[in-house]
Amino acid sequence: MPIQRMFIANRGEIAVRIIHAAQAMGVHTIQAYSEADADMLAVRLADESVCIGPAQAAQSYLNVDAVVAAAKAAKADAVHPGYGFLAENAGFVRALTAAGITFVGPSADTIDRMGDKVAARQAAQSAGVPVVPGSKGRLETTDEAVKVASEVGYPVMIKAAAGGGGKGIRIAQNEDELRKMAPQAQAEAAASFGDGGLYLERAIQSPRHIEVQIMGDGKDAVHYFERECSMQRRRQKVWEEAGAACLDEETRKHLCDTAVSLAKAVNYVGAGTLEYLYDGVTKEFFFIEMNTRIQVEHPVTEMLTGTDLVQEMIHVCGGGKLRQQQSDITRSGHAIEVRLNAEDPLMQFMPFPGQVTGLTVPEGKGIRFDHFLYEGYQIPPFYDSLLGKLIVHAPDRAAAIDLMVTALEGLEIEGVKTTKPLHLALANDAAVRADDFHTQWLEPWLAAGNLTSTR
């Protein structure tokens, strides 16, 4: 039965994005908010809104009992989690299921399987998807990690079995470093995710981060091509593109086909992303993990393919079948997204919450700004610093970068510092324009002083 009353258990720009998509489908929207978010734009746009607790996320957006109780009281028949917070929490999905409420995402069992990186690697290998050589299962001790490293060869990457966002990741060049870093990674993983399990894999030098957008209805699955997300600072993406100009057509097809194979193998429902490392020299790609939710960077795929991915996931999670066959999905031009954060990039990216005293949003063909701002809005200091995402689409990559410069110059968020100067500097950098960068490129570029107040 199609979703009729949807509870949005998130905040910020993604809450606004979900409201727009749902209302366009005729779905009644109910926005959750914390006491610190009573004035946010999503509350103003939703058909209803419900306070779910204090400002601290642990007592509101991460409080399973409070969110489920609020959704039930609001007579919601579905909950959209957005990204972050409870989006990949299998316990939350089981609590909703017990309350008779649909989760707009995959099943709890799928989240358990694909959210655990070790289990996801095993599922990928079973589906014939290449993975980076590494441990066969979870590692609980340093001695186990040293034994695996001697087999796959140094350098090795140590990762948390649970969670994401770069938490728990270390790169060890030799056994001495591994013995020092493994306990640190284990402690960080336990503190961040409540699970100190690790796994280990060979570190690919200067790789690209390529990911594939998929959508499934439980029986069938399709892909919406790939995204290039190598521009990262502290393993956080700052600039994303669709497609990946570094891929040839043969590699692109193989990559996307493997993603669909894995999605079908786990009977996937909803939107998901499979992430890969790509070696541009050997043209090898390796599966690293799956994110069982809508991604921050989904708009570049929407601009490339002309598909509203949020509406599609609402449709299939409401019991609908995929509305597009693979042959219906085509790519056109090139899209780029940059993340505008309330941070001062000239002061080591210091957080800069404050009041938006003026807002000028660029307009024009191929320009889109997903955000939750308005003049007078007081940005609360309790949450992620993401203010919005500026997205452009043009016939080719060079034209898209030029359009990004125009769009950035037309965007004014007054009253707070933002990462706009970083993106302008990147858009004017010769290496970026030549598509000559990788996942370890940005931090040395920053350390070399390429971002200054005069740029």
Structure description:
By secondary structure, the chain is an alpha+beta fold. It has 3 domains: 5-104, Rossmann fold (3-Layer(aba) Sandwich); 142-202, ATP-grasp fold, A domain (Dna Ligase, domain 1); 207-448, D-amino Acid Aminotransferase, Chain A, domain 1, CATH 3.30.470. The protein contains 15 helices and 20 strands. The chain has helices at residues 12-24, 41-45, 64-73, 90-98, 108-115, 117-126, 142-152, 175-193, 249-265, 298-305, 309-317, 397-410, 420-427, 430-433, 442-447, and strands spanning 5-8, 28-34, 48-53, 78-80, 102-103, 156-160, 170-172, 198-202, 208-217, 221-233, 236-242, 269-279, 284-291, 334-341, 343-344, 350-351, 358-360, 367-371, 386-394, 412-414. The strands form 5 sheets. An 8-stranded antiparallel sheet has the order 13-12-9-10-11-14-19-18, with helices on both faces. A hairpin with a 5-residue loop joins strand 15 (343-344) and strand 16. Helix 4 (90-98) runs antiparallel to helix 5 and helix 12 runs antiparallel to helix 13 (420-427). The chain is globular. The N and C termini lie far apart (54 Å).
